[in-house]
Amino acid sequence: MEPRYCDLSCNINWSILTPSCGNVGVNPLFGQLLTDPDIHRQYIEYVRDFTVTVLDNASFISQIQSQLEAIRDLVVDDEGYDGATYFDRQASGTDEWDFGSAGTAFLPMVRARTEVLLEQLDAIEGGELAWDEGIGTSSEKCPDWQKHTST
């Protein structure tokens, strides 16, 4: 039986061409919109704008870092929070984002996802990654964008 949910790598490598888990064409929220080529192009531009102006913005990342540092002592001292032992990794400058069953590290995951989003956007712009019926009608859960590139 196919797993209902995706593994943690989906947080990073999920194709922006299919923002729903499974067949985007039958998704009640996205299907009608993203199967229209003009709307799909606009969606990709929104993804690009958000990625470049927010996620890839050093000032934004610095603000998140500052907020995490400001709440650090409260979080670490919270006996009811299971992730307290991992909190320092949440705000770390490392690339380690996947802690398996313990979850993900927020800032490292944001940085990793941003890098992959920029790679996907470049691949779309370069014609190496394009919307096609295979992606839009696939029941593949959280498709890895790299499996659908022409290179």
Description of the structure:
It is a single chain. The chain is mainly alpha-helical. The protein has one domain. 50% of the residues lie in helices and 0% in strands. It has helices at residues 10-13, 31-34, 37-55, 58-77, 87-90, 106-125, 133-137. Helix 3 crosses helix 6 (106-125). The longest helix is centred in the middle third of the chain and has 20 residues, at 58-77. The chain starts with 9 loop residues before the first helix and ends in a 14-residue tail after the last helix.
What's the helix and strand layout?
Blueprint: H1 10-13, H2 31-34, H3 37-55, H4 58-77, H5 87-90, H6 106-125, H7 133-137
Structural class by secondary-structure content: mainly alpha
The number of distinct structural domains comes to 1
Distance between the termini: 31 Å
> What's the pLDDT, averaged over the residues?
79
* Shape category: elongated
Share of helix, binned? 40-55%
Beta-strand residue percentage: under 5%
Q: pLDDT under 50 segments (min length 5)?
A: none
**Global Rg:** 18 Å
Largest sheet: none
Helix count? 7
- Which sequence of SSEs, written as H and E, runs from N to C? HHHHHHH
Number of strands: 0
